[in-house]
Design brief:
This protein is an alpha/beta fold. The protein has a domain at 32-144. It has five helices and nine strands; from the N terminus they run H-E-E-H-E-H-H-H-E-E-E-E-E-E. The strands form three sheets. The protein has a four-stranded antiparallel sheet with strand order 4-5-6-9. Strands 1-2-3 form a three-stranded parallel sheet, with no helix packed on it. Strands 7-8 form a two-stranded antiparallel sheet. Strand 2 (30-31), helix 2 (54-59) and strand 3 (64-65) form a beta-alpha-beta unit.
C-alpha cells in the first residue's frame, strides 16, 4: 500500500485513505475520518471510559484529517438515519455538535455524501475554517476536559481551542466561551 501511496504522489500529488491506516502513515496526506465514533468503532464498551484524540495527538500536524464519520458534511441537514447502514454518519444529529467536534479534535472540514445543490454550507465552513486552518500544521500536544462538557486542546505553537458543549458560558483566559461554541486562543508572540 505504501508503494501505491508513492505512485499516487508521483501521478496525483497526494494520497488519502478512508480511515487512519497507520501502516501507510509515511505516505498518507489525508484521512476521511479518524474514527466512526459514536457508532461502530467508539460505541459503548466496558474497556472504554471516553473518546480522546489519541490518533490526532500522534499524527496532527503531519496528516490532515476529519475526526469522525459523523463530522463529514457537518453543517448539512441529515434527515432520518437509515434502518441499516451508514449509522455513524447520522449518529451526531445536531449540526452544532458536529461543528464543535470538528474543532475540538483539530479537524479539517470535509464534504462527501450530500448532493450539494446548496453550496452555502460549504462557503460557511470555508469562512469559519480560515482562522483555524494554520493549526493543521501544528502538533497537537494535549486535550483535556477542564470542566464538565468543556474541552481544551493545546497545540505546539501555544495555540488553544476551548470548546463548550454546556448550556452556560464558561470563562477561560479572560474570555467567555459561549454555550455550544468555541474560542481560539492564539499565542501572544
Amino acid at each position: 500500500m505504501n508503494k501505491i501511496g508513492v505512485m499516487a504522489h508521483q501521478y496525483f500529488g497526494g494520497f488519502s485513505s478512508e480511515g487512519p491506516c497507520d501502516h501507510v502513515a509515511k505516505t498518507l496526506d489525508y484521512i476521511l475520518y479518524a474514527s466512526a465514533y459514536p457508532k461502530w468503532v467508539g460505541q459503548a464498551h466496558p474497556l472504554m471510559d471516553d473518546i480522546v484524540p489519541l490518533w490526532q495527538i500522534a499524527y496532527h500536524g503531519i496528516i490532515l484529517s476529519n475526526p469522525f464519520y459523523s463530522t463529514i458534511d457537518y453543517n448539512y441537514p441529515r434527515g432520518k438515519a437509515p434502518a441499516k447502514g451508514n449509522e455513524p454518519y447520522h449518529s451526531l444529529d445536531n449540526p452544532e455538535t458536529r461543528r464543535l467536534k470538528l474543532v475540538e479534535f483539530g479537524g479539517r472540514p470535509t464534504f462527501y455524501f450530500t448532493n450539494y445543490k446548496d453550496l452555502k454550507p460549504i462557503q460557511q465552513a470555508y469562512d469559519e475554517y480560515q482562522p483555524l486552518k494554520y493549526l493543521q500544521y501544528e502538533f497537537m500536544e494535549s486535550h483535556a476536559e477542564i470542566s464538565p462538557k468543556v474541552f481544551v486542546t493545546h497545540y505546539a505553537d501555544g495555540s488553544e481551542t476551548a470548546v463548550n458543549y454546556s448550556a452556560a458560558p464558561f470563562p477561560y483566559k479572560g474570555r467567555n466561551v459561549k454555550p455550544m461554541s468555541y474560542e481560539l486562543y492564539k499565542p501572544a508572540f
